[in-house]
Amino acid sequence: MTHIWKATARMVVVGALVGAVALIGPFSTSAYAEPGEPSQRAAAGAESIVDVIPAETLNRMVAQIPLVDAANVIRTAVEDTSSPGYTGIGLVDDHVTLWWKGTLPADIAAAVATVHRTVPVEVARSTYSRADLEKAAAKLAPVVEADPADAAHAVTLRTDGAGIEVAVDDTAGAALPKLPTTGVRTTIVERDRLAPISRNADSAPYDGGAYISPGGGAYCTAGFGVRDASSDATHLLSAGHCGSLGQVWSTGAGTPIGSVTHRNADHDTMLISTPTPGDHIYVGGVSDEVRAEVVGWTEVFPGQFLCQSGVTSAGVLGGPICDLRVEFHYDDREELVEATQLNGEQAARQGDSGGPVYAVNADGTVLAAGTTTRFAGPGFGFQDFATARDDFGDLVPATAIPANCRISYAVTDSWGTGFSASVTVYNDGPAVNGWSLGWTFPSGQLIQGHWNGVFQQTGSAVTVANENYNAGIPTGGAVSFGFTANGSPVAPAPFTLNGTVCN
C-alpha cells in the first residue's frame, strides 16, 4: 500500500555513494568494540541523548519540530482531498515547501494558512504533479528492474515535480537500458547502489538499539518496541533481511526474546514477538546505559535531520550517528528512504541493520522514524516507520503511556509578560470526528488569544474543541491550533484527547 505522501523524491542531487558493503554477518572485532574498550567518542558520565550528540546537531533537529508538525498537518489535508495537483512536501532551510501543479484547492489553502501562523510555508508551482510522475515511473520501473546486471537500478520522483531521475552505477561494461518515452522530463544520475547492512546483553523489557542474534555468530540491532494499537499485540521491530519467519532471536547474553512472526521482504521489515517491548532506545556506547525515551513516531520528509543508533557504530563511536538528512523516498517495490550523512562520515556499519532511526526532541525524548537497512559511505538507507504500519497494521511505538494520541507542543515566541505556542494533535487510533483537548497550566497562565480551535478556560484548566472545519482527524493524521498566553512559557502535561491521556 503506497500513500501519496510516502513516495517523496529527493530535493537535492548528491554525489555518488561509495563503499557499499553487506552489513549483516558474523561478529567482527574490527568493526565492533568490546565492552570496556576505548571509543572515539566516549559517553562517560552521559545521562541522556542530549549529552552524547553535539549541541549544534540537537539544536538543528529541535528547530525542525514545528516544521515537521506543519508538514504533517498539510499532509493530512492532502490525503483527504481528491485534487490531482499535489506534487510533494519538504523541509527547506527554515520553512516548509508545498509543491503543487495548478491552482491550490480551497481546503489545502486553508491548511497552509493554518500552519503559516506558526512557521513559514511556501507554495511552489511544479511542472508535473505526483500523479504525472507516478504514471511515468510506472512505465520506467519495469524496464529498469528487468535486468539487474545493467547500469540502471532505481527510479526516483523529484519532490519538486521537476521530473524523474533514473539512478545508474558505474559498473564496468554495464549498459543503460533503452528507456520508454513518458512525456515527463527524465534525468540520468550516477549513484551507487545501497547495500544491505546491534548493545550486548539487554534484558526485558527489550529496548531498541540492543544487540540481538539468531545464533551462529550473526547479529543485528533491535529497532523499537512496538504494539498493535488494535490488538495490543507487542513486538520488537527490526530489519527483514536479518532473519526468517519462525526464527528465534536472543540477546547478547543468550536470553530468548521471541520468534519472528511477521516479515515483509520487499520492505525489509520484521516483527519479533515479545510480551515485554521496551519504551526506550540505547543511544550511548556499548558498555553504558545511556538511553532515550520513545514518545511516539514521525513521518519523514525531505530535508529532515535524523539519527541512528546501531550496535556496531555505537561500539566504534560511543554514541549515535546524527546529521542524517533525508533526501528522497524510492517509489518502487522496496520504498526505501535515503539520507546523507552531512559530514561525510560512514553512515552505518555491519550489524547496525534493524537499528532505530529517530528524531530528537528538545527534552531528550525521541520519535521513531524507521529502521536501518543499508549504507554506502555517507549514504544511508532506512525503512520509515509508516511503512511498517502499512505492512503490519496499526503499529505504534511502545511508550510509557500506551496512548493512541501524541501532542507536539512548541513555544514559538516569548516576551517579558507572555508567550505564544503551537499545538499539534497526532491521532494513532481510529479516525476521530469531533475532538476536545484538555490540559492544566502549572502556574496560572491565562489564554489571551487563539486560533483554529474553540477555547474554554476555568482557572488553570484549558479545553480546546474543534472548529467545524477541522473536526476530523484520520488515523495517522494531525491537526494543529495555537494561542497566546500571559506568564512564563511552559509545556503543560498531561494532555487528554476526548478524555484519554496522550503522549
Automatic annotation (TrEMBL):
Gene3D superfamilies: 2.60.40.290, Trypsin-like serine proteases. It comes from Plantactinospora soyae. This is CBM2 domain-containing protein. One of its GO terms (molecular function) is hydrolase activity, hydrolyzing O-glycosyl compounds. Residues 398-503 form the CBM2 domain. SUPFAM superfamilies: Carbohydrate-binding domain (SSF49384), Trypsin-like serine proteases (SSF50494). One of its GO terms (biological process) is proteolysis. It comes from the Bacteria.
